[in-house]
């Protein structure tokens, strides 16, 4: 079944970049699958919390040990930049 775009012209499978309407004239909506919503609302905040705790612990440990070598300074900088980026 052909759909009509905003201008009222009948189109096939390609709408030319215009909004597609269903048979009642309403704009078609894309429904987000449950797995994607679960990822957005549950998994990402948990990963953000774990990463934040890990970076704070890394900074505390490296600050206590006074990283004089290049490895310690580099790890401290990576932890700080990671916290700022998140």
Automatic annotation (TrEMBL):
The chain crosses the membrane at residues 43-62. Keywords: Membrane, Transmembrane, Transmembrane helix. Residues 54-86 form the G-protein coupled receptors family 1 profile domain. It comes from the Eukaryota. InterPro entries: GPCR_Rhodpsn_7TM. Its main location: membrane. The keyword Protease does not apply. It is found in: Membrane. GO terms for cellular component: membrane. This is G-protein coupled receptors family 1 profile domain-containing protein. It comes from Ramazzottius varieornatus.
């Amino acid at each position: 079944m052909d759909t009509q775009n905003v201008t009222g012209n009948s189109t096939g499978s390609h709408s030319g970049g215009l909004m597609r309407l269903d048979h009642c004239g309403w704009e078609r909506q894309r429904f987000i699958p449950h797995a994607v919503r679960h990822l957005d609302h549950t998994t990402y905040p948990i990963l953000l919390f774990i990463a934040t705790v890990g970076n704070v612990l890394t900074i505390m440990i490296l600050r206590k040990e006074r990283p004089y070598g290049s490895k310690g300074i580099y790890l401290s900088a990576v932890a700080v930049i990671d916290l700022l980026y998140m």
